[in-house]
Amino acid sequence: MTKAGLRQGMLHHLKYSLGKDPAHAQVRDWRVALSLAVRDRIVDPWFAATRATYGGRHKRVYYLSMEFLIGRLLEDAIVNLGLLDEAEEVFREYDVSFGDVLANEPDAALGNGGLGRLAACFLDSLSTLACPAYGYGIRYEHGLFRQRFVDGRQVEEPETWLSDTHAWEFQRPEAAFEIGFGGEVAETGSRALWQPGESVIAEAHDTPIIGWRGNWANTLRLWSARPTRLFDLERFNRGEFAAAAEPEALARTISRVLYPDDTTEQGKALRLKQEYFFTAASLRDILRRFRSEYDDLRKLPLKVAIQLNDTHPAIAGPELVRLLHDENGIDFDDAVAIARACLSYTNHTLMPEALERWSEALLGSLLPRHMKLIERIDDTHARQHPDRKMRIREDGDVRMGELSFVMAHKVNGVSALHTDLMRQTVFAELNRLHPDRIVNETNGVTPRRWLLSCNPRLSALIDRTIGNDWVGDLERLSELEPHVEDSGFRADFAAAKAENKAELARFILETENIAVDPEAMFDIQIKRIHEYKRQHMNILETIALWQAIRDNPDAGWTPRVKIFAGKAAPGYVLAKKIIHLINDVARLVNSDPVTSSLLKVVFMPNYNVTLAERLIPAADLSEQISTAGKEASGTGNMKLALNGALTIGTRDGANVEIRERVGAENFFLFGMTAPEAVARRAVPDHATRAIEASPVLARAIAAIEAGVFSPGDPERYRDVVENLRWSDYFLVCSDFDSYYASQREADAVFMDRDRWIRMSVRNTARSGWFSSDRTIRGYMNDIWGVQSIV
Ligand code: GFP
To answer: What is the distance between the alpha carbons of residues 191 and 638, in angstroms, rounded to a whole number?
Structure first.
C-alpha cells in the first residue's frame, strides 16, 4: 500500500467517520482516523484467512484466557503491515507529530502480568505463523486498575481505556449467548437438565490481529455482559428509578473489572461468574462454528483445539461434557473422552495460593449441574486409578488444577525447570498415572513489539548489520555474533543504548521530576509486586548500597539508577507495604546530597505495556531475582536480555535457559538453587541466622526499624521487618549476601565499558530462541496438532 492510499483512507475516515475537517482535527481525531484506515487494510487478509480456514476444513485453535494484555494496537498493526515510513511521512505533510498520534492511544488494560502479556504475544505469533486461531476472553470495561501514589502509598483508581471509541473492534450483536447461573437440575430418567435461575447475555466484540508482513489475521473475540432485560419499566414508572436499573447494573458487573478483590464472598462469587461467563460463551461459539461445517460432534477433536490459559477457564471441562452429554445425548464416558481430546491446559504457577480452589458450596449454588459433573468426573477417574490418593475434591473444595489436569490431554509448564517441578511436586501423582501428559513449552516474546517497535535504534542497527529477516526468524540474531569483534559495531550498539537511556532520563524528569544521570547504570525491576519476586530484597540492597556510599563516598562507586515499576493486588497488604517502602527510600535517598550523584531510586507509577516499551530498551541491568523454584518462567527476563540488558538473576524459571544460551560469563548469577531453597527453609531460624551472619543486611534492616525512611513513624514497616526476621518464606535474608556480592561484581564490570558492551551484544545475539514464534510452533506440534496454512 502506498502513502497516497494511506493518506486517502485516513482523510476519508476523518471526514466521514469522525465528521472532522483536517483544519480542526485534534490529535485524538487523527489517531482514530488513522486507526480506522489501518484497520481497513486488515479486513481483507482477515477475510482471506477465514475463507482459507473454512475452505481447507482446517483445525482451529481456541485460546481461552482471562487476560489479554495487548497494550496499544496502532503501532503494532502499522509495523506488521509495513506502513511505518508511509504513516510517518503523511503526518509530516500535515505537520502533526506522529509520535503524539501513537501516544494518544490508551493501553488496552485487559491484563495483570506475565500470563496476560504471554497471551498477547501468542496472538501476534499465531497470526504471523498463519495458524487458524481465536483468542477468547472478557472485554473488561475498566481493566485492572490505574495505580497512583499518594504519599508513597498505592491508590487504585478505575481504568478508563474504553471511555473513548475503541477503534479496533467490531461489535457483533448477533453473536450473543444467554449464560445462566444458579437454579435447579431436573433429572428425568437418565437425563439431567439444568434450569438456571438467572442469566445474562454475552455479546461478542471482535478485534482482528494482523501478523508480521500482513498475510494473515486471526480474531480476538471478547465478551461483554449485558442484561437479558434492559430495565424494569414497571418499577421505573412507579418512580423507583434506581431499583429499575438494578438488573442492568448487576449484569454489567460481570465484565467491569479484572480480578475484583476476592477476599469477600461476593468477590469470590463474582470471579467464578466471570470465569464461567466467558468460558461458556466461548464454548457455545466454538460448537456453533463446528456445527456450521460438520454434523458429528464426535469429530470435534479433529477440528478443535482448546487451550486453557491457567485454571481460570477450567470450568470448560465440565461445561463441554455438559454440552455433549446433557444437551446432545452423547454417553458420559464418550463425552469426557471427546472433551479431553480437545482440551489442554497451561500451568503458570506452583504457588499454592494461586492454584484456584472453589468451595463445593459456591460451585454447587452457582453451577449446580457442573458440580454434579465434577463429582462424576472425579469418581470415574478414581475408579480407573484405584491407587490414586489425591482427588479433585478436597476438604469441601474443588481443586481447579487437578480438574484441568484430568480433563486435558496435554498439560504444559512454561519453562524447563517449572515443568520438572510440576512433575515432582503439585502434579506428582497425576504425572505418575499419566506420564505422557505433561510437556514443556518455554515461554517466548514477540520480536515485533519487543525489539522492532520498542527499540527502533537497536533494530535499525541490526537491520544495517544483518538485514531484517530476523523479525520473522529471531534466531538469525546469532549472525550478530561475529560483529562483537568489530569496534565500530560495538560503538553503534553502545550509542543506541545511550540514546535510549537519555530519552528515558528525559521522561523520568518530565513525569517524576527526578533528575537521573544517563551515564549511570540503569538497573530495572519491572513486574507485579509479589514477595516471591523479591522487590524487597532489591530495596534492601539499595539501602545497604546507600549506607556504604555514605560511609565512603570517594571509593569509586559505579553510579546507579534503580528503577521499579509494578502493581500490587488491591488486597495484598504486604506487597503494598513494599511499594510504600520503596517510595520512602526513594524520597530520602534522592535528596541526600552525599549520594545523589551516585544513587537514585525511581518508582514509575501505573506499570503497563507502554511503560515497559519505554523502560526495556534503556535497561543496563535486568533484575530477575525471584526465590528459586517460584517464578514459573518470566518473560520480562527475555525482553530485557533481547534488548541487551545483562541479567542479575537466580536459577529460576526461564533464567536457567537464558543463562545457558547467553553464556554463564554474560550473566550475573547468585543465590540458592530450588532444592537448596527447600532445604534452607527447613533450617530453624534461617532468617535470624542469616541476619546475624550479615552485618550489611543487619544494618539495612536496622535503618528501616529506626524509622530512617519513615521519620516520626518507626512502626510503619514493622510487619515487613517482622516477616523478614521470623518467617522469610521467600528467603530474602538467606540470599542477600550472595545478591549483594553479585551486584558489586556488576558494578565492577560496568566500569569496564567495553567488556559490558560485549556482554550486552552477546545477550542480544543469543536471545533469538526466546521468540514466541518458537513457542507457538511447539504448541502446534506437541499439543494442538495443527499446521500453518501457506
Ligand atoms: C505468570 C508466571 C510467570 C510466567 C507467566 C507466563 O506471570 O513466571 O512467565 O505467568 O507464563 F508467574 P506473572 O503474572 O507472575 O508475571
So the answer is: 51
Which pTM was predicted? 0.97
pLDDT of 438 reads 98
Percentage of residues of the chain with pLDDT beyond 70: 100
For this structure, is 501 an active site residue?
A: no
Which pLDDT tens digit goes with each residue over 269-307? Answer: 999 999 999 999 999 999 999 999 999 999 999 999 999
> What is the pLDDT averaged over residues 241-254?
87
The three three-digit cell numbers of residue 45, written as one number:
487478509
Please give the Cα distance from 95 to 90 (Å, whole number): 9
Task: Based on the residue annotation, tell me whether 630 is a catalytic residue of this protein.
Answer: no
Identify which of 602, 613, 608 has the alpha carbon closest to the alpha carbon of residue 643.
Answer: 613
- What domains appear along the chain, each with residue ranges and CATH number? 60-443 (3.40.50.2000), 447-672+734-767 (3.40.50.2000)
Give how far Cα 724 sits from Cα of 499, 571, 624, 627, 643, Å.
39, 20, 20, 14, 34
* Confidence grade of residue 3 (pLDDT, cut at 50, 70, 90): confident
Q: What share of the chain is helix, strand, coil (3-state, %, to 5)?
A: 55, 15, 30
20 belongs to the catalytic site: no
Q: Which amino acid is at 192?
A: A
Decide: 414 and 442 in contact? Cβ < 8 Å: yes
CA–centroid distance, residue 466 to ligand 1 (Å) = 32
Among candidate residues 105, 79, 116, the one with its CA nearest the CA of residue 220: 116
Evaluate whether 320 touches 301 at the Cβ level (below 8 Å): no
CA of 634 to the centre of ligand 1 (A): 5
| Nearest CA owner, ligand 1 atom 13 | 114
Distance CA 65, CA 315 (A): 12
pLDDT value at residue 353: 83
